[in-house]
Amino acid sequence: MKSTRQRDAPTSKRRTARKKAAGPVALVRSARTISATQAARTFSDLLNRIHYRGEAFVIERGGEPVCEMSPIQPPRFTGADVVSLLRSLPKPDREFWDDVEEALRQKVTIPRSLWER
Predict the structure, then answer these.
(1) Where are the beta strands (DSSP E) in the chain?
(2) Are strands 57-61 and 64-69 parallel, antiparallel or unpaired?
(3) Cβ atoms 81, 92 nearer than 8 A
(4) I want to staple 56 with a disulfide (CB 3.0 to 4.6 A). Which of 31, 61, 77, 111 is the partner?
(5) Quick count: other Cβ atoms within 10 Å of Cβ 49?
(6) Has residue 117 got a pLDDT over 90?
(7) Residues paired with 58 in a beta bridge
(8) Residue 101 burial (CB count, 10 A)
(9) For 47, which DSSP code?
(10) CA angle, corner 72, sides to 69 and 76, nearest 5?
(11) pLDDT in tens, 40-60
(12) Cα 14 from Cα 33, distance rounded (Å)
């Protein structure tokens, strides 16, 4: 029986074509299930397969799924989404601003250090 690396290794032409076609994130297929022991023994190989081939793995311990290893997905929110969210929040009321101003008035001023130039 061939090892996993030998059986699943793509030819260099196919690897190059896949990289050019879509990049590692777009290559994600259905996750393959492996044991925690197998993941620990072949960790470097798993990382390479995830990075270069876009594969995903579900790690099991005692037959129960524990976690999934897969390529990082692109961010789901943009800066514009954050700005939009902040704008949708209710405005602070006048009592809040009064409390902020009072806290600023009570702030202790630290004297400037004589050691600074």
Answers:
(1) 32-35, 57-61, 64-69
(2) antiparallel
(3) no
(4) 31
(5) 20
(6) no
(7) 33, 68
(8) 10
(9) H
(10) 130
(11) 999 999 999 999 999 999 999
(12) 24
Reduced to 3 states (helix: H, G, I; strand: E, B; else coil), residue 78 is coil
Reading the block at residue 87, the tokens are 């704008």
Tell me what percent of the residues of the chain surpass a pLDDT of 90: 51
What per-residue confidence (pLDDT) applies to 29? 54
Sheet containing strand 57-61, edge to edge, reads 32-35, 57-61, 64-69
DSSP 63-86: TEEEEEE-PPPPPS--HHHHHHHH
Please say whether the beta carbons of 69 and 59 come within 8 A. Answer: yes
Name the pTM for this structure: 0.43
Contact yes or no for 4/45 (Cβ under 8 A): yes
Cα–Cα dist 78/84, whole Å? 10
How large is the greatest C-alpha to C-alpha distance in the chain, in angstroms?
77
Q: 15: Cβ–Cβ under 8 A, 6 or more apart, which residues? A: 52, 53
What is the model's pLDDT at position 16?
43
